[in-house]
Design brief:
55% of the residues lie in helices and 8% in strands. With 332 residues, it is mostly helical. It starts with a strand and ends in a 5-residue tail after the last helix. Bound molecules: tryptophan.
């Protein structure tokens, strides 16, 4: 069985962007691989170091959501990054193998720095060492478990490439030790927001969360962007520019063809269409929310799962560390 490793930052509850953009893909992979799923709390600190008090609850909420969507802890080792100190140790050793200019040229880091500048102006200039260096720590995440395949979205490709470079450099200097990982791109591109923006995101305020109440779902979907050219209820419209149709498609409404046809012919008003989507969305979320409720009431079970995952992860990382120390001739 090949080893898969992927990570996700704990930033609170999961939304449909996380689910359809990444997590639903993990569900398909869990039967066929030795799967390590990391809750990347240390990485979350790289741009949230001033709010550490949020981490503990965010880790818990994320673990609950992962379990509620159907990640099976019997098949997947779910663990918390900070519980595996070997990752931090590897990060230090790898940091010698990467130049600062290479990190600054990493397209993901570059984009994120630009976003910070756009958000915070001059303050955005004060990028920390930890932030610029997070690709190095991510390389440690992957290689600590000898991850061969890394399921990620497109935006993460430069980070995998950086990891591959570090592995090659390590192996060429210290001898064949680490496995060069390959990215495994998810089929779904990024998921659009309720407002029609290219990306659904927490900070963008355009997301539907897996834990949203009926009231919230109603409010959000009633406010979703539809074809702006459609004025009257019976005007024909273009479903391809309508977010309501987009989500009908995303959650696999079995009446999709009817929705499309009626919309194009002007036989379906937007309000009716939104009400139908609300119903379908609630049906889609129901089994997930039942499990969320169960895990919120059985906290100890969630922590036990994280502890079990930690044990497996720790054992594997310890072995890697031994090999690395041996190759680096620091096993004295
Ligand atoms: N950087 C990833 C993200 O923001 C999360 C992550 C952390 C990750 N460690 C990883 C992804 C290791 C793949 C492999 O989504």
């Amino acid at each position: 069985m090949k080893t898969i490793l992927t990570g996700i930052r704990p930033t609170g509850n999961l939304h449909l962007g996380h689910y359809f953009g990444a997590a639903s893909n993990w569900l398909k992979l869990q039967d066929d691989y030795d799967f390590f799923l990391e809750i990347a709390d240390v990485q979350a600190l790289t741009d949230n170091f001033h709010q550490p008090e949020k981490l503990a609850s965010n880790v818990f909420l994320l673990a609950v959501d992962l379990l509620s969507i159907g990640i099976d802890p019997k098949k997947v080792h779910i663990f918390v990054q900070s519980k595996i100190p070997e990752i931090a140790e590897l990060t230090i050793f790898y940091s010698n193998l990467v130049t600062m200019s290479r990190l600054y040229r990493n397209p993901t880091v570059k984009t994120e720095i630009q976003q910070k500048k756009a958000l915070f102006g001059q303050q955005g200039e004060s990028v920390t060492y930890g932030f610029v260096g997070y690709p190095v720590s991510q390389a440690a995440d992957i290689t600590a478990f000898h991850g061969e395949l890394v399921p990620v979205g497109e935006d993460q490709l430069p980070l995998i490439e950086q990891c591959r470079e570090i592995v090659r450099k390590f192996n060429s200097i210290y001898g064949e030790t680490l496995i060069e990982p390959k990215p495994l791109l998810s089929e779904t591109p990024r998921i659009k927001g309720l407002d029609g923006a290219e990306k659904m995101g927490k900070s963008l305020g355009n997301a539907i969360y897996l834990k949203d109440s009926e009231e919230e779902i109603k409010k959000k979907i009633m406010g979703a962007i539809t074809d702006p050219k459609k004025i009257q209820k019976d005007d024909p419209a273009n479903p391809d520019v309508c977010m309501v149709y987009y989500y009908h498609k995303l959650i696999h409404n079995e009446n999709l063809e009817v929705v499309c046809k009626e919309c194009k012919k002007g036989e379906r008003g937007c309000v009716q269409c939104k009400k139908e989507l609300i119903q379908k969305m609630l049906e889609f979320l129901k089994p997930i929310q039942e499990k969320q409720k169960y895990y919120y009431e059985h906290k100890e079970e969630v922590y036990k799962i994280l502890e079990d995952g930690r044990k497996v992860a720790k054992e594997k990382a310890e072995q890697t560390m031994k090999d690395v120390r041996h190759s680096m001739k620091i096993d004295y």
